[in-house]
Amino acid sequence: MTTHALRRRLAAAGLAGLLTVLASAGCAFGPPNEEDQGTPPKLPSPSVSSDSDDGGATVQVIAKRLTVPWGIAFLPDGSALITERDSGKILKLKSRGGSVAKPTTVQTIKQSVHDGEGGLLGIAVSPKYATDKTVFVYYSTAEDNRIAKLKLGGTPKPIVTGIPHASVHNGGALAFGPDGYLYAGTGDGTETSNAQDKSSLGGKILRMTTGGKPAPGNPFGDSLVYSYGHRNVQGLAWDRGKRLYATEFGQDRWDEVNLIKPGRNYGWPKAEGKSGNSAYTNPLETFKPSQASCSGAAISGSILVTGCLAGQRVYLMQLDGKGGILGAPQHTLDKQYGRLRAVVAAPDGTLWVSTSNKDGRGSPIGDDDRILRLVISGGNKVDKS
User: Fold this and answer.
1) Which residue stretches belong to region Disordered (predicted)?
2) I want to staple 203 with a disulfide (CB 3.0 to 4.6 A). Which of 157, 188, 189, 300 is the partner?
3) Sequence spans of domains, the chain
């Protein structure tokens, strides 16, 4: 699709100002405890840059020849940490104005075991990184999936173990919310009953302190479980109203984008997609798996952006500021870069998107896997209220 055609499509849907300056959430938190919540990391002031003169879409390849990049998280200096699922490496990448840069290997998580969809998955940077220098990783072992904390170059210290593990359905999303707590999206580990069992960590969204303890205010008392009834959660993103959205792989019928509320049951395996059963919370949006299989998620301005594997595209959804979606989702990058996994908002106001063509299900080219820098600019100003 040409940039002119994309601009017309986005403008018609009210999405033309996708990547204007990212506004801060304006949140304030109390003093953090050693193993409790913190405050959002202080990142460089965002700005928008683009090689396009017509307000259209620009995609720049900023890293090449990676091995199944899975998670991306930014340090306070604006550089990114990138996990490689199969190799177990944590890479560091500094974007140089959108030009191609060579990542450096920070360390290899030797405890990570690659098996099918398992390996080194999500990564999150401590909100207090400036003082504690701590990052968090989600990875597979031979027995389970687990979450660990570490200082780069140091030995990971597991804080949550026993998340169900299998060759597929390992989840892996990891991110700090605007409340300063750590959230993780898990899979059912191919045991569908895990999703409805609140004593299991599988098929859940978990909410915890930086010590791996249940966060205060969790809906089920002394439990990490924040929401349940999920099949395989791989993307987490918050809007300016602190609402949480998650992407979830369905089975054969529907992939889902969900608005996550504490204590809610999202239906799996009893329901896939929208259900008439009031016991289950319906998704905001559903997609046919062949057109989606969306993994990563990010919010820029009022736009929810997801990266899709089987669909080999990016979906753009206009949020209404009340926990809903306006109009029909739009999509771009269709089959231009292959399978797309991570999507994160960078400090400069762009989106970083990773390809996943070396994951055993794609058709890699010589430069795969790649990190893309996506800019879609021009048009209406995004409401920052």
Assistant:
1) 30-55
2) 188
3) 3-376
Gyration radius (Cα) of the chain, Å: 19
Residue written as token pair 């239906």: 267
Q: What are the residues whose beta carbons fall under 8 Å from the beta carbon of 336, sequence distance 6 or more?
A: 59, 312
Beta-bridge partner residues of 313: 308
Return the structure tokens found at 313.
């595209």
- Please tell me the predicted confidence (pLDDT) of residue 98: 67
CATH architecture assignment, domain 3-376: 6 Propeller (2.120)
- Render pLDDT for 203-235 as a digit per residue (tens, 0 to 9): 999 999 999 999 999 999 999 999 999 999 999
Which whole-number Å values give the CA distances from 347 to 344, 358, 382, in the listed order?
A: 10, 27, 17
Give the integer Cα–Cα distance in Å for 310 and 33.
42
What DSSP letter does each residue of 259-328 carry, written as one string? EE-TT-B--TTT-SSS-S-TTSPPPSEEE-GGG--EEEEEEETTEEEEEETTTTEEEEEEE-SSS-EEEE
CB atoms within 10 A of CB 303: 23
Q: For residues 215 and 37, is the Cβ–Cβ distance under 8 A? A: yes
Least Cα distance to 298 among 279, 283, 310, 314 occurs for: 314
Looking at residue 378, its pLDDT comes to 31
Tokens (6 digits) for 78: 């604006």
Burial-class residue 101 by CB neighbours within 10 Å (0-12, 13-18, 19+). Answer: middle
Q: Which two tokens stand for residue 365?
A: 């080219």
Whose structure tokens read 């700005």? Answer: 47
Phi, psi of 81 (to 5 degrees): -100, 130
Local structure of 5: helix, strand or coil: helix
Q: Provide φ and ψ at 4, rounded to 5°.
A: -65, -45
Q: Which amino acid is at 342?
A: A
